[in-house]
Specification:
mainly alpha, Cytochrome C
Length: about 190
């Protein structure tokens, strides 16, 4: 009897873990996966935080797909990183690139990252998070005056100006506080 129970538990474990691998193959499979998380994986790499965060917000890699990080994180691209020289030594670049590719939207179990991955899978790699169709759609109801006309926001690329829990990987509506517009609700 105990052997049957152990065999059943082993079979259940194997089915469950193989389901996790297969779950990513379809939207339905991903949706019912017990391994998915809400939001975006927070940044947990010290080098990423220090190097990227010294010039701008250290964006979680789950906000862009792998194909975007591949275009952004190479010697040539970093030599002219949106008008600035963000060159890195070879070892640091490798660490940052490996981290981005391992945690990109299309490699993530996080719900919001998966939505970004789906929104970018049939299009050319976006180089900016603000070019992602999903991100645009999530922000389309916010009037321009609250973003570009707001001296404390200026652009959608300053995620942390309004998203108060970015460090935790949380970008939901409940944690948004638009500076100078405390009463605005989505």
């Amino acid at each position: 009897m105990q052997n049957r129970f152990k065999a059943a538990m082993l079979a259940a474990g194997l089915l469950t873990s193989s389901g996790a691998v297969l779950a990513e193959e379809t939207f339905t499979g991903w949706w019912i996966s017990p391994w998915r998380h809400k939001e975006v994986k927070p940044v947990d790499n010290k080098t990423w935080k220090e190097e990227c965060g010294s010039c701008h917000m250290a964006y979680p890699p789950g906000l862009l797909p792998s194909k975007s990080w591949e275009k952004l994180l190479n010697e040539k691209a970093l030599g002219d990183h949106f008008g600035d020289d963000a060159s890195l030594d070879e070892e640091t670049l490798k660490e940052i690139r490996d981290y981005a590719l391992a945690n990109a939207a299309d490699k993530s179990w996080y719900k919001r990252s998966r939505k970004i991955a789906m929104a970018t899978e049939q299009v050319e790699a976006p180089l900016r998070i603000t070019e992602v169709r999903y991100i645009k759609r999530k922000h389309h109801e916010i009037p321009e005056k609250m973003i570009k006309g707001n001296k404390d926001v200026k652009s959608l690329s300053f995620c942390n100006a309004c998203h108060t829990k970015v460090e935790e990987g949380t970008f939901d509506n409940d944690t948004v506080r638009i500076p100078n517009y405390p009463d605005w609700k989505d």
